[in-house]
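Shall we go through a protein fold together, starting from nothing but its sequence? Label the sequence line and the structure token line clearly, so we can match residues to local backbone shapes. Would you write everything just below, so we can both look at the same thing?
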Amino acid sequence: MPLLSFSVCEGKLRSGVKTQTMRLRQDIEQGSVLYIWWKSRTRQRYKIGVAMCTSVVRKTFAEVTEEEARLDGFADKDSLAQCLKKLHKSRMFDLETAVFSIISWRWTNQRLYGEDLQTTLFVEKEAVVL
């Protein structure tokens, strides 16, 4: 059950509007249960919710459309490119030829908001039943 951690688009994630992300990782498949976290490696971390992966499309950044950039929460493809360069500045890769996974999901009804983490165990238990 993969974990997706985010450090941008918090409001769009919490409201449920953001349902897509682009990642260099290749280990997520359609049908996977996804745990969506805000800043999972920091003290500000919290679990936003649980989602079901509805599709994974692999393509180079050059193949990414403006619409896919907007669905990822960005104004346009250039804004997405700037964010990816900033997030992955320590990795050596050519943005245009790197293969990304475009991961889409649908939120389950097990969503958490802010510091409401007391139901985390309930959410994880229920996610397995999906």
User: Anything to note?
Assistant: The chain has a mean pLDDT of 83. The CA atoms of residues 7 and 42 lie 10 Å apart. The beta strands are 3-6, 20-23, 33-38, 46-60, 99-111.
